[in-house]
């Protein structure tokens, strides 16, 4: 190989290293932006998405005006839009079935389909909501995550851990980060092919 060809390759490598550095800085900036939202704000937005319209604020108003319902719907749509922009996760399908309902608790079975950049996922879980006086608490049980991740053992371990602990928030945060870097790797390998 002559020196000019070698120089071209070295310049290209240098350019890619700079691009990786810029992407890493951009990633760090986005991670710092995510710390502006408290875990409670994120959980409340998720709870708003999974709960029926009247249960979001712990109230069950039976006679609401159409303008109130429209305002609540717009608020929920803003929350969903916020979550999708914040995490890059798009929900393509959601189904919910009430399994058991008592005076103070409700068990609902949820099924979510979606994708995060190039990765698709399917979640099935039960949401146990318990109401004590004015406080509503929710617990996720029987979490099942179906995801194509090939031979990546780290992702397999992560999915198993998320299923075991029933921690959706950690799953979505990690999925968003993993999908971003997965896409960067995919584009880099395509570039070299």
Structural notes for this entry:
The protein is of the alpha+beta class and 193 residues long. About 5% of the residues have low confidence. The longest helix is centred in the N-terminal third of the chain and has 32 residues. It has a four-stranded antiparallel sheet. 54% of the residues lie in helices and 27% in strands.
Layout of helices and strands:
Elements: H1 3-34, H2 39-50, H3 66-87, E1 89-101, E2 105-116, E3 119-132, E4 135-147, H4 153-165, H5 168-192
Antiparallel strand pairs: 1-2, 2-3, 3-4
Beta-strand percent range: 25-35%
Helix tally? 5
- Could you tell me the mean pLDDT? 77
What structural category characterises the helix and strand content? Answer: alpha+beta
Q: What strand order characterises the main sheet? A: 1-2-3-4
Q: Which descriptor suits the 3D outline? A: elongated
Largest sheet: 4 strands, antiparallel
User: Distance N terminus to C terminus?
Assistant: 20 Å
Report Rg.
Answer: 22 Å
Annotation, overall tally of beta strands: 4
Organism: Brachypteracias leptosomus
Coiled coil: 6-33
InterPro entries: CENP-P (IPR027801)
Keywords: Coiled coil
Short note summarizing the structure:
One of its GO terms (biological process) is CENP-A containing chromatin assembly. The chain is an alpha+beta fold and 193 residues long. It has helices spanning 3-34, 39-50, 66-87, 153-165, 168-192, and strands at 89-101, 105-116, 119-132, 135-147.
């Amino acid at each position: 190989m002559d020196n000019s060809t070698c120089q071209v390759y070295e310049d290209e490598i240098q350019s890619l290293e700079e691009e990786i550095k810029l992407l890493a800085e951009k990633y760090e900036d986005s991670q710092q932006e995510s710390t502006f939202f408290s875990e409670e704000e994120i959980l409340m937005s998720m709870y708003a998405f999974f709960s029926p319209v009247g249960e979001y604020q712990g109230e069950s108003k039976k006679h609401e005006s159409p303008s109130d319902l429209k305002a609540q719907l717009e608020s929920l749509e803003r929350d969903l839009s916020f979550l999708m922009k914040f995490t890059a996760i798009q929900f393509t399908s959601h189904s919910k079935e009430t399994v058991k309902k008592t005076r103070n608790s409700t068990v609902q079975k949820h099924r979510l389909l979606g994708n995060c950049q190039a990765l698709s996922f399917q979640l099935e879980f039960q949401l146990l909501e318990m109401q004590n006086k004015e406080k509503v608490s929710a617990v996720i049980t029987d979490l099942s995550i179906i995801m194509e991740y090939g031979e990546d053992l780290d992702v397999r371990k992560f999915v198993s851990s998320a299923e075991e602990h029933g921690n959706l928030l950690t799953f979505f945060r990690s999925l968003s980060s993993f999908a971003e870097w997965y896409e960067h790797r995919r584009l880099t390998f395509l570039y070299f092919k």
